[in-house]
Amino acid sequence: MKKGKNKGRLQAALYMVCLMLLASGCGKKDEGTKEEKGYTYIAEYAQMDLKCDHVAQSAVVNDILYMAGSSWNEENGISTNYLYKYDMADGILELLPLDISENSYINGMAAMEDGNLAIIVNNSTYDLDENGEPVNWQDSMEMWKISGEDGAMLDSIPMDGILGDENTYINSMCIDGQGNYYLYNGDSTIFVLNSQLEKLCEIKSDNWINQMVSSKEGDVYVTSYGETGMELRKIDTAAKSLGEKVEGISDGYGDKQFFTGLSKSFLIGKSGKMSYFDLSTETEEELFDWLDVDVNSDYLSMAGELSDGRIFAVINDYSEENSKTDLVFAKKVKASEVAEKEEITYGAMWVDYNLKKNIISFNKTNDKYRIVVKEYGTDDYQTGLTQFNADLTTGKCPDIIDLSSVNYSQYANMGILEDLYPYMEKSGLKKEDYLENVLGAFEVDGKLCGITPQFYVTTAMAKASIVGNVDGWTLSEMLDFVEKQNPDNVFAYGNRSQIFYYCIYNNIDEFIDWETGKCNFDGEDFIRTLEFAAKFPEEPDYDDEEGLSAKLRSDKILLMQGSVSSVQEYQMMNGLFGEPIAYVGFPNNERKGNLIQTTGGFMGISAKSKNKEGAWEFVKSILSEEYQDSLIQQSGGWGFPVKKSSLEKQFDLDMTQEFYEDENGNQIEQTKTTWGYDDFQMEIYAATKEEVEAVRELLMSAQKLSGNVNEQMMNIITEETEAFFSGQKSAADTAGVIQNRIQIYVNENR
Amino acid sequence: MFFPVKEKLKSGKSGSNRRTRRGKRISVLYLLPSVIGVLLFFVLPFLIVVYYSVVDNPINHEFVFLDNFIMVSHNAAFQQAAKNTMMFSATAVPLAVVLSLLLAMMLESKIPFKSQFRTFFLSPMMVPIASVVLIWQVLFHYNGMMNEVLGWFGVDKIDWLNSSYAQIVIVILFLWKNLGYNMILFMAALSSIPKDILEVAVLESASPYQIFWHIKLRYMSSTILFVTIMSLINSFKVFREIYLLKGDYPYDTMYMLQHFMNNTFGKLDYQKMSAAAIMMAIVMVIIIGILFLTENYFGKDVEG
Amino acid sequence: MREKTEYNSNNAVALERWNRSVRKKKKIKHTRQLVRITLVTMVAAWFALLFLMPIVLTITNSFMSASEISANYGQVFATTDTGGKVYIAEKVNLKFIPDMVSFSQYITVLFKSPEYLLKFWNSVILVVPIVAFQLLVAAGASFGFTRYRGRIKEIIFFVYIILMLMPYQVTLVPNYLVSDWLNILDTNWAIWLPGIFSPFAVYLLTKYMRRIPASVMEAAQIDGAGEWQIFRKICMPLCKGAMCSIAILIFIDYWNMVEQPLILLSDPEKHPLSVFLSKINAGEIGLAFAVATIYMVPPILVFLYGEDYLVEGITYQGGIKG
Fold this sequence. Notes:
The complex is a heterotrimer.
Chain A: H1 2-36, E1 39-45, E2 54-61, E3 64-73, E4 78-87, E5 92-96, E6 104-111, E7 117-128, E8 134-146, E9 153-158, H2 160-163, E10 172-175, E11 181-184, E12 189-193, E13 199-204, E14 209-214, E15 220-225, E16 230-236, E17 241-245, E18 256-260, E19 266-270, E20 273-278, E21 283-289, E22 300-305, E23 311-317, E24 324-334, E25 342-348, H3 353-365, E26 369-375, H4 381-393, E27 400-402, H5 408-413, H6 420-426, H7 436-442, E28 443-444, E29 447-448, E30 454-463, H8 464-467, H9 475-485, H10 496-504, E31 512-513, E32 518-519, H11 524-534, H12 548-553, E33 560-564, H13 567-577, E34 581-583, E35 595-599, E36 603-605, H14 612-623, H15 625-630, E37 640-641, H16 644-655, E38 659-661, E39 667-669, E40 673-677, E41 680-684, H17 689-701, E42 704-705, H18 711-725, H19 731-748
Parallel strand pairs in A: 25-26, 25-27, 35-42
Antiparallel strand pairs in A: 1-24, 2-3, 3-4, 4-5, 6-7, 7-8, 8-9, 10-11, 11-12, 12-13, 14-15, 15-16, 16-17, 18-19, 19-20, 20-21, 22-23, 23-24, 27-36, 28-29, 30-33, 30-34, 30-35, 30-37, 31-32, 38-39, 40-41
Helix pairs in contact in A: 10-11, 18-19
Chain B: H1 6-12, H2 16-53, H3 67-74, H4 76-108, H5 114-122, H6 129-139, H7 145-152, H8 166-192, H9 195-203, H10 208-246, H11 257-266, H12 270-303
Helix pairs in contact in B: 2-12, 3-12, 4-8, 4-10, 4-11, 5-8, 6-10, 8-10, 10-12, 11-12
Chain C: H1 2-9, H2 12-61, H3 66-73, H4 104-112, H5 114-146, H6 151-165, H7 168-181, H8 189-196, H9 199-209, H10 214-222, H11 227-255, H12 259-264, H13 273-278, H14 285-313
């Protein structure tokens, strides 16, 4: 009997232990992945000074990289081709002689088994018409075989006869393990030739082919967009068709580039990440994120693997004034070998292009801190926001919080953002050096909770001759005015909801008394606005042939919503209207309807950050004179710098005339840029002093931040107005429901 | 058969005391896994909620004592939500109990296809919530079937989901989903009433009315309380349907406490959410306490 | 039990009296009963129709082509630019019978886009362990609560009930924090563990076990059975029906979960199909019914298999009485 009891206890204990193990099992699994993360990648740039603007074609064989590109000479209108050989093991760059005529292009390049190169040369010919424009383009393709050693021409075969048609265009080329050539015509046909250049077959694809690539195994595959995303299919020369879609490739329509691998079948570059793809197991394995190794891979042109395991990438950089090409090596190292930098997390829904560039350059130059980006909004906004919020409350709170797609005032009012003024003071940045109205728009209770490097102004424009020289109006003024003018439409291609939004968007707080919690959506003003908007067409009329400019000039439309992001854009608007413009903006009670829109990152420092100094280091960098000056651009950027001195430099540049000498030796003013909107286009020359003054005034008039409109309330309004606009409910009923639902929102938030 | 009485057992064997003590200890072992899990995943989170309810916001963690409770209890939206939730539970739960009891008695009255009917009434449990909501949306749409049917009788269109009728729609939805399960619980209880008692009652010429009130209800009292608790739990779950129907901010009569909590959560106002949750918990403790006492009172009466 | 014997003792005379009166009234009563039963059946049928409508609609609509569905309900689920739902549409049709039977929805769901099946599988992976282990944990806990009841255990049990009644919104955020602390965020464990330890099954099963007469277990104890044997050999067999019915309830509940995966699993590839279904918008509505129908299959199977348990399950009827 005693035995039985013991057994019972033992079994009960066992049962419990089982459950405990179950509960603790997870912790162990996680440790495993951490060990895996003991490795990290670091990037090294190769010293490479190429004469060509960018690398258009490349091929790699035995760690030797061949790159071909052309350089366009603006003076004489001639493009020159260059072929480079770069020994990636030794780091020696060599310019191979290439006897190729001007205005010929290299359309394809692939390495052959023997180490020599096959290239497709497009000798295009054309005649010039009376205006000097080229006509009668003729493409004639040739395949050249050249020595991989010194670039000596081994063979040259015209393609016309081989492919059937004359003038068959060839866009890219691959070579498979048997030495067969795959030529893709850039449309949907692939020609397969054997090593003797005899045509084996012609394969047509139903889908547009995105890319042709050979695998490590020596087969050639194509990628195209299918039902759920990018699909990879083998070119089956035996069946003369494309094979079944390869499984295991992650869904999504994001850009995926495939490159031939060395240890695995392919390397895949997608949205800034590198991964392996193995055909035999049909699995994808992520390697690293280019951003983590401080490389901007937006224009990844070619990637591959070296025999020592390094990953190389050819990346074109078009962002600079003169585009250039980088060769980057990513090397796997033990995490402990990398110099420790303090990590500063930058939490954002999405990271904008300029900001990304800025972060990379900060990481490259700063040897104390390193910005690590955490993006939340990749799947959908609401889920991202929830996780973002959850992280804010845990220890994972980002040091720098990107505010460009969240409700700024909500976060600022909660006291989770540091006041940046004391930091500025400590670092010797003077408040007076920056635009007061911009800083003012960010201020909450006298604290500067967020900052942006650049901004532009969103507004609505009308002819000053009609509206008068005003820079703002109230809702009722606006309604009175439009009703008096009685135009066909308020905006070009305007519809009811757009017009309604224009009236309400920046004005919604005026229907709410936050002090008492009273809403007034069932009042006269709101109902009037609803009825007003309903007078306009439900659907925008896109078939209208008449151009925007003509409509504006003939007063068929009254207003135009738009932005002013550079002096040049302002000049274009003047041209579009053909007469002085009044920037009335969005209706609101204070008649301050021009809004500040941040660009290039809008950030604040978390009050809970454990490394505020480091976070400030980065924020400071975007306010620094150096960075602010770097925003100045010849033909105006997308936005104005917030530092006064940089803004003035930009203005000076905008007013600087440039000249060139014509054939008679006269100095002729050169156009700065060409700006257009809808069907209107004009060439922009240097701005006059008056124009710059007007822009300055416009910039100063903007006092409020754009995008601070409450989405929840907007959703309720949109949802309910639909019934009214489709004529099913009266304006009063609709307003009543909106009042009811928004009242709850208001009550909840008081 | 014969059940030994407790006293008899106690005086039975000399070793039983020691065994009982050991048994007690072992029984704690059985409890332990669940208690640890509940502590970790339910009690600890609840304590965190308590903590949040006394700080100013989840990021600053400044202690403010009862400020949040005062603020929330004065909040008009919270009051509205509390009122709606109470109204809803107070109408939907009794309705669910009474109607499902009626249904159960209907099916117990020897009608054909009894088991088929039972399955049919249970079927709403199988439909994914999203389809339910879709169909409800189409039914009670402004141009939906309900208005069309009413139109035949010359009734004006009603905007069901955007008027004070909204709560009726929700009650119907709730009943539709939960009647079947409650009914089954009642059917089981009904069939467990000893037949001979009913027969004797008939013999004694008790009226059906008397039989129902004095025998059936008496016997089912613990089932009724059980169904009430289950319906109460489910009445809190109706939020998911309302949410899928009308989003974060529905018409005010549909605005429940869970909306308040869900929205304040979304806006990082954890302090408001936590204060509301704790107030709700306190009310819940009182309600459940009362239900428990009643159950103990009635339960002993029958089982004894 | 005592009542019963009381009644039985003096029944001889009464029975005789009753039999006589019954024979007299039998004919009239028979027709009246027939009418009553017909009426009741009709009422029940009418109710059944109402109850069945959604399930029938879901299934018949799954055989409509995507375009037919969009034409009927597309507007209801159209979303605005800002992501809000548009409520009013010109015309809404509730259609039972498709214009033309089409399997296109199923073909898309089953063969063309593997993501739906993948999500279905996610659902299975998330729900099945919860059901199995919640029952296992609850079986132990209920046994613990049932044997040797004491003041402390009663208090704990009361706490369980309160926790069970808490709306999930309350504990979801703290759950996120706890999961983060345990390092299980973004893994299935974050869904499994709170599910496994949910007090719901403990409450139901304890309620059930406590109605098993204490004497049954005590008798075994006197016969020398240890706690494990009582649990394994006496308690569990008696609770089989209850366990099945509780399993059904848990299954239904978690099969429809939406919020937990959304917050605790950031990777949408891990989300169950229920999350997808709850986010249907105009673009996908054509597939909604087929997906919903496929999603209904496991619950229907569970019901068909377990309905009888459900019926006898929760309330203890005393399998060992009399």
